[in-house]
Amino acid sequence: MSADDPVVMVPYDVRWPDEFRSIGQALRKALGPIALRIDHVGSTAVPGLDAKPVIDVQVSMERLEPEDRYVPRLEELGYRFDPENPDRTKRFFVGRDGDRRTHVHIRRRGSFDEQLNLLFRDFLRTHREAAKEYSSAKRDLAKRHRDDREAYVQAKDPTVWSLLRRAHDWAQSSGWQAGATDA
Nearest-CA neighbor of 85 among 103, 59, 73? Predict the structure, then answer.
């Protein structure tokens, strides 16, 4: 998905978990034991949540470097590595053109970002009202910022941070820990 693509939300698709499982199995086979976790994250991982139709996969590894341990393996599956990704806490891959949009985020196991993605997903999965609130905000912002992806992301920040504060409180009171890997 390029920065010029319009921001489009679609209703939750019950096929997304199966699509993730297929992707996750292929990644598990290609990466073997260097992939410590392979998780479905992002909005498509939350039943009932409207989303951009992109399957986000988080692969947790002991370390991000050397990249030659995994870049060629993912490229063999057709993923394109984005070495210019400005977020240096992860390595980022996109699916082939023409395929259902898939983003693969390689993160270091135990990192703040790895845990944050899992916490946010689990919070939204277990708090339906919070998921509805997030879905409503995303739909509204996608309409207002359809042709400006960066403005959409920035406008979404206050809602995301509000939900993350609630997720943090929930994690503290419930003793939340990331469950078993998805794939």
Answer: 103
